[in-house]
Each structure stands twice: as structure tokens, then as C-alpha cells.
Amino acid sequence: MGMTISEKILAAHAGKKYVEPGELINAKLDIVLGNDITAPVAIKEFENLGLNKVFDPDKVVLVPDHFTPNKDIKSAEQAKVLREFAYKYNLTNYFEVGRMGIEHCLLPEQGLVLPGDLIIGADSHTCTYGALGAFATGVGSTDMAAGMATGESWFRVPETIKFVFYNKLKPYVGGKDLILYVIGLIGVDGARYMAMEFTGETIKELSMDSRFTMANMAVEAGAKNGIFEQDEKTLAYIEKRAKRPYTLYQSDANANYDRIIEIDVSKIEPQVAFPHLPENTRPISRVGKVEIDQVVIGSCTNGRIEDLRIAAKLLKDKVVHPRVRLIVLPGTQEIYLQAVREGIAETVVQAGGVFSTPTCGPCLGGHMGILAKGERAVSTTNRNFVGRMGHPQSEVYLSSPAIAAASAVLGRIADPKEVDEDAV
Amino acid sequence: MLFKGRAFKFGNDIDTDAIIPARYMNTSDSMELAKHCMEDADPEFVNKITPGDIIVAGKNFGCGSSREHAPIAIKYAGISGVVAKSFARIFFRNAINIGLPIFESPEAAEAVNEGDQIEIEAETGVITNLTRGETYQAKPFPGFMQELISSGGLMAYVREKGVKNG
Ligand code: SF4
């Protein structure tokens, strides 16, 4: 019996020739990641072990991105715990404010995560790196602490669901719409404990930024990881970034899948997930009139340059609706600078929007755009749970950057075609 | 080990933002987190419970964030264990790692009513509903996880095995 790409990566890191779903293995890690929320808990646990070093100072990555630049005294104290730990243990990859970004935009950009890697991160969206053909999964702080100490972690080898996307995408349909559609199809626990493997002719055409968006939201279907096989696009992306060797894996033709789901993308419209679960998806034509107070464009899901370009294209020479606050948060400093160079920042500001420094900010209701009671936001983030962006009685509608930008202009959830003069 | 307490019922897909909202994530103090346990699902929850009580929920309990603050908030609020139809993956891992007893039993999740007196025997996974005179069986953990649990969580297990990082 052949193996899937996920099984091959796990087997290689466990020093085995073959693994199968359900098997419990102990495996070596290439990267252990933490942020300003999860790492302080892990650091406390790690210090209790009384070791004088982490397993490898090049492989432990700390990114203070959630409540930074520090939003209050408590979060300043948490960020300080990371900083002091990073200096004490000589970590190569600690990213200070002004040089950092949202972790899942930053690590791929910096070439820290590569094809064939096995990665754990104390953040549920660690699965983002599956876009590069890595096996990456979110864990908790205690797993992170043990990982920092031993360079290993235990895994249950997941079953894999294979998604085969075919046909051509409609205008303004991208990675975000595909993944929202999939979550709507299988539900928020549809892939619980499993691997989601994204394949097919449509995927070959899809940009890396769109692939990151899709892998990012695998956890929103309950999955352990989302993964893509590498192709020319992956290699073009990592070529200039990789600072160490990497290994390419492909699924065998006779690999074993729990299910294979085929999706004709030519039938998929831009998608919106209604409150309060990412599975409450509707095609844009069935959204109806939903007036909004705020639009957020950013996050580890859609804070990359392609996302900002699409938004800027729709905002160009327009103004944000008088009742709406538009907040744009680029994913990293590099993306920020690129957006400034391309005139994206100017377009946003001229339209009457906020162009912020990189931070998770409002995505998790941290700062930089919290919702009051009864307010509604369209957001390119990944979760619309009760209270996620602020008051427990506020609402979040998840969408692509295109829908978000169009909605900012019209003051209600809108089809990008409504503001795109070139569209017929 | 035997747990005994009143059941507090919750629905499907209770996410980590409902268990402990992110607005309280600027601290990792366990007792501080406990004060806001389940706040966005039931603002009165922490005032209603007494130590030892048990959460009984539907499918996919703990979905969403990887924050370990979620099982920590539950544990330090005084909840002795969580019974659910199923658990989200990272929550499941975190609960085992920090020593919050969890039990997967679709049967119990269906049959138990709010306020029922529940008794759980951790080793066997037998859940007894003292109010209704019924018993249900939770899925047993695989051997490796039992080892983790009996060591007292992952860090204790790592310590037991000895860390070989130099
Ligand atoms: S942007 Fe949102 S989902 Fe992504 S890491 Fe930050 S808080 Fe989490």
C-alpha cells in the first residue's frame, strides 16, 4: 500500500519506512513555534525542567504578533517574557516589533518553513505551512514546551481526505472562497483529526498566496493539517528564501484515502460565512441585504500582498461608505513595504481606510478594531465565533478580500462585481 | 479516580472563544482565567458551579484556537471533568497534557440532563447518572495516552523519561 504525502513526512521524521493512519508515533521536529499568548505558558513549563538550552536555537521561533505593539501593561509583560527568553537562550528567530509580522505570513516569507518539514506551533493556524508541502499542525503550550526541550513530539497519524478541484474559477473566486465552500460542505468537524490534501487542475493554477489561505483554514474544518503537493509555484516561492535543504514528497498513486471529494469550481460563487460558525456559508447571490459597521482586511488568512492588491483594485478612486470603518492590516513588514511601494497604502488611506502596522489585532478581538454590542463586521479572517471580534453580541461575516473591499464601499455585504467597473 | 458532581450542559461546537474569550488572553494566570470560564456561552456559569461539577457537551467541544488557557480555565474553575460527544483535536491534546479529565461518550452527551448528579470512574470510563439511574461507557484511551495521564501530564512524562538535549 502506498502512502500519502502527510504519511511520508511523518514516517521520515519518525525514522520509519511506513506509517499508517491511527498509529501513534514519536517524531523529530524541524520547527517549534510560539507567540505572545501561547509561549509565556510554554516558557513557564520549560523553565520548570531546569535545562540550560533549547534543543536547537535555530529551530525555536518566537513571534510576538497577537497583542503587539503592546496594547496594555499585561500584554507588554507577556511580550517581555518572550524577549527575555529569546535572549537568554540565544534564539536566532525572535522577531521584534518593527521586524515582525503575523507568524503564519512571516515564517514562510522568511524561508523558515520548507517543503517536507514537520512543524508544530502553539497556534492553531500553524497548518498554514501545508501550502508548501510541509506537515504543520497546531498544538498547545505544553506540547510546545516539550518540543522546545526534546525536539520531538508525539503524533497520531491522521487519515487523509483528498479534495480534487477541477475546472476554471469564476471571476473574484479565489482560495478563500474555495476553503469556505469546503468547510460549508463538510462542516466545522468534517475533517476532525484528519489531514486535508488539496489537489487537482484548479490547484495547479492557484497562487501560493491563495494556497496559504486554504491550508490556513484546514483547522476550521477540524483538521490536523492541510497540505498541497509541491510544484513549480512552490519551488519558485522558496527558491530565494530557503536557507537550508528541504525534501520534496508526493502522494503515491495507490495511497489510501478515507474519502475523495471532487469539486467542480466553475459552480462556486464568492462565499460568505455567516455568524457564528465558519460552516454557515452562502454564495454571494444568496446573502441578501446585510448592513455593516466595519471591514477588516488582513490576518494570517488574507494579509498577503495578493489579498491587498485585490482590495486596492476595488477601492481605487472610491470612498469607504460613511457609516463604515475600514481597517487594513498587512501580514508582515515586507508586505507592508511592498504595499507602500505599489501605492496600495495610498489607495486605502485616500479611500478613507486605516492602514495599520502588522498585528493580529481585531482578528481575535485583541485591539485595533473591537466591535461594540450589536455591530457587524465583514472580515477576511478565519473565525466568526461568538465574541471573536469584540462584544458577545457583535457579528462577524467571513469573506475574501474582494467581497470585503466591495462591502466597505457599499456599506453592506456586496458582490465585488458591483463596484468593479470593468465587470459586466 | 472517582469524580462526582452536577452536570452543566452545553451544545455542539463550543469553541475556545466561548470557553475563554481572547480578551482575557493578556494573562496566563490560571485563577484569573478561571474567573471567565465559559463566559460567552453562559455569563453566569462561574457563579452557578460548585467544585467537582462536570461539563457535558455535544460534538466538537473546544474547537478553534490552540490556547491551553481553555482547559486551564475549566480546570481551575473547579470543574472535575468534561464529557462530550466528541472533542476538537487540539483541545483533546491540551486537556490530556495538562491533566483535565475528558471523556468521549455520545451516549452520555445525549442522555444526561442539566443538573443530573454524575459520577465518573476515570480508569474504566464508566459514567453513572445517579439522578436517572443509568450508566454509559466512555471510549477508552490508547495505552500511550493512559501512560501520559498516569504520569500526570506531558511535562511530567518528559521529566520521567529524562530529557536528552545536552
Ligand atoms: S491573525 Fe488571527 S487567526 Fe491568525 S494567528 Fe493572528 S489571531 Fe490567530
Task: Provide tags for this entry.
heterodimer; A: 424 residues; Aconitase, domain 3; 5-stranded parallel sheet; B: 8 helices
Topology of this structure?
The complex is a heterodimer of chains A (424) and B (166).
Chain A: H1 5-13, E1 24-28, E2 31-35, H2 39-48, E3 60-63, H3 73-88, E4 93-94, H4 103-109, E5 118-121, E6 135-138, H5 141-150, E7 152-156, E8 160-166, H6 175-186, E9 195-199, H7 201-205, H8 208-216, E10 225-228, H9 232-239, E11 259-264, E12 271-273, E13 281-283, E14 294-297, H10 299-302, H11 305-315, E15 325-328, H12 333-341, H13 344-351, E16 354-355, E17 376-379, E18 395-398, H14 401-410
Parallel strand pairs in A: 2-3, 2-5, 3-4, 5-6, 8-9, 8-11, 9-10, 14-15, 14-17, 15-16, 17-18
Antiparallel strand pairs in A: 1-7, 12-13
Helix pairs in contact in A: 2-5, 6-8, 11-13, 11-14
Chain B: E1 2-9, H1 16-19, H2 30-34, H3 45-48, E2 54-57, H4 69-76, E3 81-84, H5 89-98, E4 102-104, H6 106-111, E5 117-121, E6 126-129, E7 134-137, H7 143-151, H8 154-161
Parallel strand pairs in B: 1-2, 2-3, 3-4
Antiparallel strand pairs in B: 1-5, 5-6, 6-7
Helix pairs in contact in B: 7-8
Protein described:
With 424 residues, chain A is α/β, with parallel strands linked by helices. Helix content of chain A is 30%, strand content 18%. In chain A, the strands form five sheets. In chain A, strands 4-3-2-5-6 form a five-stranded parallel beta sheet. A five-stranded parallel beta sheet of chain A has the order 16-15-14-17-18, with helices on one face. In chain A, α2 (39-48) packs across α5. Chain A is globular and about 55 Å long. Chain A starts with a helix and ends in a 14-residue tail after the last helix. With 166 residues, chain B is of the alpha/beta class. In chain B, α7 (143-151) crosses α8 (154-161). The termini of chain B are far apart. The model of chain B has no long low-confidence stretch (mean pLDDT 93). Chain B has helices at residues 16-19, 30-34, 45-48, 69-76, 89-98, 106-111, 143-151, 154-161, and strands at 2-9, 54-57, 81-84, 102-104, 117-121, 126-129, 134-137. Chain B is built from eight helices and seven strands. Chain B is globular. Classes of the chains: A alpha/beta (424), B alpha/beta (166). Chains A and B meet through α2, α3 and α5 of A and α5 and α8 of B. Bound molecules: iron/sulfur cluster.
